[in-house]
């Protein structure tokens, strides 16, 4: 495994751990400033909308992630990722979602890999 592949796997692990802790600042640091998210039935959205949604959730998030495919393309890379997650709103019932994401990452000027585009295909399980 190359250093870049290890660094990309670390981005995913850090993202999942920070999400479990509700650590928005860490999650945001793993994104490019021009990040775009695509999810079913919504218009694509960027970093500010992601942050607002994260803050508004108030949910406990737990889950797992498995990188199924990782391909380096110079300063870009993509991963196909299988995610299984459960979100539990305060005083509510847990909602489990699972499925795949297709994520583009970009190696930025500081040498760090960050998420640049994400197509999230998770569905209620």
From TrEMBL:
A Pfam family it matches: DUF4440
Upper lineage: Bacteria, Pseudomonadati, Pseudomonadota, Alphaproteobacteria, Hyphomicrobiales
Protein name, UniProt field: SgcJ/EcaC family oxidoreductase
DUF4440 domain segment(s): 8-115
InterPro entries xrefs: DUF4440 (IPR027843), NTF2-like_dom_sf (IPR032710), Steroid_delta5-4_isomerase (IPR011944)
């Amino acid at each position: 495994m190359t250093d870049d592949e290890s660094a990309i796997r670390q981005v995913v692990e850090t993202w999942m751990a920070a999400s479990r802790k509700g650590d928005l600042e860490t999650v945001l640091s793993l994104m490019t400033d021009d990040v775009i998210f695509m999810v079913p039935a919504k218009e694509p959205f960027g970093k500010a909308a992601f942050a607002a949604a994260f803050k508004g959730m108030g949910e406990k998030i737990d889950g797992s992630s498995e990188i199924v495919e990782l391909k380096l393309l110079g300063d870009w890379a993509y991963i196909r990722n299988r995610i299984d997650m459960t979100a539990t709103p305060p005083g509510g019932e847990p909602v489990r979602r699972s499925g795949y994401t297709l994520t583009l990452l970009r190696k930025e000027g500081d040498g760090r890999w960050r998420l640049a585009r994400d197509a999230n295909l998770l569905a209620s399980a």
